[in-house]
């Protein structure tokens, strides 16, 4: 009977560790402050269009967004939206100490009901005059301007963006309305 209890406790500990208990990842703090509330309960700052917002090594400034675009490119070569394209013009500045690649596919857009939309990196090639804008590393202190494209249903309006310096970062929210 004692052997069974020990095995059960070991199995529980392994499952708990696998689920993050005992993790040393400090990306979100749960320590109590003087008011007794957890710091992770505080709402994250939400930037607006035209305001800089930082995630990791990048500072993003959304310049504008335009939806309702049916086609990007020329008559000969381009991309046609399944629904409508939303073109988000953004400035990305490397605020880190080493080169970092901007990955358009790591960016997300959201509708008011919380539906998440991923970027259409294929269409973005046609939306950017310099197709290499987001395919090269951005060196420290340098910045690039470009367009991130989202293909969303015709009847949807985007309300916010979640911009990331990489696919593994926490991201920063930018309100579109």
From TrEMBL:
Residues 23-50 are annotated as: Disordered. The keyword Coiled coil does not apply. Gene3D superfamilies: 2.60.40.1240. Keywords: Signal. Transmembrane segments: none annotated. This is DUF4352 domain-containing protein. PROSITE patterns: PROKAR_LIPOPROTEIN (PS51257). InterPro entries: DUF4352 (IPR029051), Immunoprotect_excell_Ig-like (IPR029050). Residues 23-36 have a biased composition (Low complexity). Residues 48-171 form the DUF4352 domain. Residues 1-21 form the signal peptide. The keyword Signal applies.
């Amino acid at each position: 009977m004692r052997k069974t209890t020990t095995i059960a406790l070991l199995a529980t500990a392994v499952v708990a560790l696998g689920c993050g208990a005992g993790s040393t990842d400090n990306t979100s703090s749960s320590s109590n402050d003087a008011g007794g509330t957890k710091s992770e309960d505080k709402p994250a700052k939400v930037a607006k269009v035209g305001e800089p917002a930082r995630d990791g090594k990048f500072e993003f400034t959304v310049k504008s967004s335009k939806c309702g675009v049916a086609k990007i490119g020329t008559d000969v070569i381009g991309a046609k939206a399944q629904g409508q394209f939303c073109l988000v013009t953004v400035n990305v500045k490397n605020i880190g100490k080493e080169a970092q690649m901007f990955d358009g596919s790591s960016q997300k857009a959201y509708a008011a009901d919380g539906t998440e939309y991923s970027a259409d990196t294929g269409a973005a090639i046609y939306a950017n005059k310099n197709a290499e804008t987001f395919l090269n590393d951005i060196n420290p202190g340098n910045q690039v301007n470009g367009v991130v494209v989202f293909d969303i249903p015709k009847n949807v309006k985007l309300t916010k963006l979640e911009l990331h310096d990489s696919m593994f970062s926490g991201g920063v929210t930018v309100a579109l309305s």
